[in-house]
Amino acid sequence: MNDTGKSGRGEAPATMGERPTLKTIAYMTGLGITTVSRALKDAPDIGAETKERVRLIAQQIGYQPNRAGVRLRTGKTNVIALVLSVDEELMGFTSQMVFGITEVLSATQYHLVVTPHTHVKDSMVPIRYILETGSADGVIISKIEPNDARVRLMTERNMPFVTHGRSDMGIEHAYHDFDNETYAYEAVQRLAQLGRKRIAIIVPPSRFSFHDHARRGFNRGIRDFGVSEFPLDTITIETPLDQIRDFGQRMMQSDDRPDGIVSISGSSTIALVAGFEAAGVRIGEDIDIVSKQSAEFLNWIQPQIHTVNEDIKLAGRELAKALLARINGAPPETLQSINRPVWSPMAPKP
């Protein structure tokens, strides 16, 4: 009688229509079921070559662990929940974030589940659901507030999590963030170098942390480079794009208008540019624009825009790595990173 704990050769592979199992992989690799299981869990005592062979076979035959069984045996779901606002920027943000996360998770037993929500409603709803149902081993959240109730609740409930953005509430937690303060400061500097004197900024809503970061950098730049602010109090990057376009057209048809714009959002920039062009304004001559973007596209549309790239795929990778480390018990204060702005090579020189 075959000892399946040591060898999988006595068990035929799954037939057509049957779900592949650990026994199937054991049969195809000539390894024991225990070895196969440990290889898929990235056990340190299993050689790298063996792990790669097991993972390759598992991928080829479409093996998926039985989540119910895994949860019964280990108490784990092997699920990572990405809780994303449906209000996230349209231009490549969500897809690039998911690509980055899955690049890291593909070498592990974890699966990604995207949970959409809207900040207009209660952003706590998806977090409470995950905590009450135990439907994930770790959580990634974005659109962080300075005093974020989600951060507090998951910390209190000992749920491993990581945030895209930073809070300001005295709780150490894992995060990856873009340096919006440095971006806004350098954007004002770039516009000042171009001779612009009246500079406006389109910012996130004030409830979010990256509003405060961008504001700090912008205000410091205004002071350091001897220019003045043209206030934009009626729109944010979450204002509907058609309203941003109409606002831009009306503003540039007025005698009182800015000569430089700093934008935190690529999609908002496109809407503004449409409004400016409808008003007969020439980008790079009548006004200069500095914009952040999550994918190289603004300079294809309007080469005169000064662009800074925020690498969202990198953010996804960093968030996934930090969350896996947090699940494995790493202290949160060791899992904090900030990505500095990088000027696009396609952007015009000042």
From TrEMBL:
Residues of the signal peptide: none
Cited CDD domains: HTH_LacI, PBP1_RafR-like
Keyword Magnesium recorded: no
SMART domains found in the cross-reference section: HTH_LACI (SM00354)
HTH lacI-type domain ranges (all copies): 20-74
Protein name per UniProt: LacI family transcriptional regulator
SUPFAM superfamilies reported for this sequence: lambda repressor-like DNA-binding domains, Periplasmic binding protein-like I
Domain of life: Bacteria
